[in-house]
Amino acid sequence: MENRCRLTMEIVEGIAKEIGPERVGIRLSPFSSHLDVSDSQPEQLSVYLANALNKYNILYAHYLEPRVRRYMQHVQTSYSLQPARNAFKGAFLAAGNYNRENGNEAIASDRADLIVYGRLFLCNPDLPRRFALKAPLNDYVEATFYTQDPVVGYTDYPFLEETGYRMDS
Asked: Where is the NADH:flavin oxidoreductase/NADH oxidase N-terminal domain (predicted)?
């Protein structure tokens, strides 16, 4: 594990020395696969990385849930982020198709310090307000992800008041 994580640790160490560990965070996806390549020991890797990162006192570790494999494909799995959560001493962020309910539940059950809502924020620029009001959410349009257009799919999703949503409904 040490050799497999060496480059990551060297990069974290270098950045932390340069700008200070309180300004460093890292996103890790040890359970994911890309181009049909996945790790043979993802849970052990996630815990090893969490413990190794503690040495640098970085601000946060942002992990992708094991239930999310490739590009939001969801699978049933016995893997959990809990061992990495238990090992990491800084702020622990979790991402992976969370919604208002399961995100709140993850925080309440101490599975994470923060929940990351990447795609939901992309298509709901007023996401905290929508969560507070339990208002309907915009659906994201995957075809607009990672395009060269600086507007379509990034800045054209409507705010709640633009959708005709009535606060008294």
From this structure: 1-135
- What pTM, to 2 d.p., does this model score? 0.86
Alpha helices in the chain (DSSP H): 2-19, 42-54, 82-87, 100-108, 118-123, 127-133
CA distance 36 to 65: 18
Rounded Cα distance between 117 and 103, Å, is 9
Q: Give the C-alpha separation, 120 to 137, whole Å.
A: 8
CA distance 160 to 6: 46
Closest CA to 63 of 95, 41, 37, 23: 95
pLDDT tens digit string along 57-108? Answer: 999 999 998 766 555 555 666 678 999 999 999 999 999 888 999 999 999 9
Q: Which residues pair with 27 in a beta bridge?
A: 62
The radius of gyration computed from the CA coordinates of the chain, to the nearest angstrom, equals 18
Number of helices (H) and strands (E) in the chain: give both, helices first. 6, 6
